[in-house]
Design goal:
With about 180 residues, the protein is mainly α. It has helices at about 1-20, 30-35, 40-45, 50-65, 75-85, 90-95, 100-125, 130-155, 160-170, 175-180. It has a domain at about 70-180. It starts with a helix and ends with a helix.
């Protein structure tokens, strides 16, 4: 199993290197396989096509970045995620431009949802807020934060991650009063 993951990661690294050099539509399986030192058969053992590799690579970048920060403050988590997205701009912008970006966004939205639900649970502890209300609040903030990040990506990620983090912090600074309104 470890060898299989290593090969998938090797293909993903080669793919990311090629993305720095070429538009995604010019990259093919042969190029990725040659760059990685693996065969086309190995590529097809792990992936169906370039789009499959693109989605898997995006998932891995997201999950590997988010995992170490799951128990951190939302500000630390957000900054780490934005820094990761910014550092991988070539991949992110090309995946975002693809029609099949929905599966990568879904993974990202799930991770944001987990973070937001934890924040809502912590902030509402002992307040007597119904579980359905907590879930609604978490969905609201998940949708908002996901949309802000998506708009940042769609705008070409021109704003620096630290500035975007500051702006989100300002936006959420007084949000705790929203929780108080849901007390049964």
């Amino acid at each position: 199993m470890a060898r299989s993951i290593d090969r998938k990661l090797q293909l993903a690294r080669s793919f990311i290197e090629l993305l720095d050099e070429l538009p995604i539509e010019q990259i093919n399986v042969t190029m990725v396989a040659q760059r990685s030192g693996l065969s086309r058969q190995t590529f097809y053992y792990h992936f169906r096509c370039i789009e499959d590799l693109t989605n898997w690579t995006a998932h891995q970048v997201i999950l590997r970045t988010v995992a170490p920060y799951r128990d951190s403050s939302w500000q630390v988590w957000l900054r780490a995620v934005l820094d990761m997205l910014y550092a991988n701009r070539s991949l992110v912008l090309k995946v975002a431009a693809e029609d099949g970006r929905d599966s990568s966004i879904k993974v990202f939205k799930e991770e944001i949802g987990l973070l937001i639900m934890r924040i809502v649970e912590d902030a509402s502890a002992g307040m007597g807020i119904a579980p359905s209300d907590r879930a609604m609040i978490a969905r609201f903030y998940t949708a908002g934060l996901t949309e802000i990040i998506q708009a940042w990506i769609d705008d070409g990620m021109r704003e620096k991650p630290d500035r975007l983090t500051e702006r989100v912090e300002m936006l959420l600074a007084n949000s705790s009063s929203l929780l108080a309104r849901f007390v049964s």
